[in-house]
Amino acid sequence: MVEIPDYLLERSREARARFQGGDGGSAEASSAIVESTATNEETAPAIAQAPEAEIEKVEPPKPVAPWVIAAKRRKKIPVWMAPVALFLPIWAFMIWGTLEEPSSNEEGVIAAGGEVYNQCSSCHGAGGGGGVGYQLNEGEVLKTFPDVESHIAWVVNGSSVAGTPYGDPDREGGQRISQEQGVMPGFSALGSLQILEVVLYERVTHGLQSPESLEAYVIWAESGELPIWESGISPQMIAGSFAEFLETNAEAQEAYEETIEQAAG
Ligand code: HEC
């Protein structure tokens, strides 16, 4: 039910009294006004004026406009909206940040490599800082093995007798030579997937190579089509099976070509 403001009721009572005292004929009209007031509050301003024209000295109280009444009845915005509104731009910003192309593929394989690295950290340090084995981090491992294939072959085979040179012969600071004090065991028993994972992990985390440039190898790791790498395998044999894989996988092929282009340009 619509509530009729008191002043309106009061005024219509007064008006009725006056009409009945003077012109009896207009009593009907006045009761019609009261009725319409009861059913439709929007006519309130009209009522406020109608009696005023005919009756002198009725001091009309300031009419409350229907839109004001409506505004007061309307549901208010809850208080907690204020902090919510305050943080909206921040959330928008955070969501914008997540819209980047997901690199979850690379992260998956490389993160898995971090698990495998637990078997290497006793000699190379948890962060690749070196120990019995050489330092790998700060880009060192990439200087020794500029290509993925020789890196894989090294981990599969481990080191030869002390004094044997290995890795890039043009290595900055001279080629690596197996030391007297430590030998690295071969890790062929890990299986091809774990070996590739730990190699990609080392190249990204220690070698500071960009994961994007290793995308084709990530796809290779995920393909389930890795060959078995046994002790004695050479980098050339690994490169051969990688090339074969690229021929069968357009996505990897494309990723690899992009890497070559970026390296060239
Ligand atoms: C028992 C100790 C030991 C463990 C465990 C070990 N390494 Fe090594 N690693 C060495 C030694 C020692 C060298 C240096 C080569 C040498 O002196 O023969 C080396 C060298 C390397 C190199 C070459 C670094 C360079 O720049 O010369 C890489 C890469 C490497 N290891 C990776 C690994 C990975 C991956 C694992 C784990 C799957 C691993 N290592 C586990 C001892 C170890």
Shape: rod-shaped
Q: Indicate the multimeric state.
A: single chain
CATH topology of the largest domain: Cytochrome Bc1 Complex, Chain D, domain 2
Helix content: 55-70%
The radius of gyration over CA amounts to: 43 Å
Intertermini distance: 78 Å
The CATH class of the largest domain, by name, is: Mainly Alpha
Structural notes for this entry:
The chain is mainly α and 265 residues long. The protein has two domains: 6-73, no CATH class; 106-264, Cytochrome Bc1 Complex, Chain D, domain 2 (Orthogonal Bundle), CATH 1.10.760. It contains 13 helices and two strands. It has helices at 6-21, 27-39, 44-54, 66-73, 81-97, 104-116, 121-124, 140-144, 148-157, 192-206, 215-223, 235-248, 250-264; strands spanning 165-166, 176-177. A two-stranded antiparallel ribbon has the order 1-2. The longest helix is centred in the middle third of the chain and has 17 residues, at 81-97. The protein starts with 5 loop residues before the first helix and ends with a helix. Mean pLDDT is 83; it is low at 23-34.
Please render the helix and strand layout as text.
Blueprint: H1 6-21, H2 27-39, H3 44-54, H4 66-73, H5 81-97, H6 104-116, H7 121-124, H8 140-144, H9 148-157, E1 165-166, E2 176-177, H10 192-206, H11 215-223, H12 235-248, H13 250-264
Antiparallel strand pairs: 1-2
Bound molecules: heme C (HEC).
Entry summary:
This protein is an all-alpha fold.
Any descriptors?
265 residues; mainly alpha; Cytochrome Bc1 Complex, Chain D, domain 2; 2 domains; two-stranded antiparallel sheet; 2 strands; 57% helix; 2% strand; rod-shaped; binds heme C
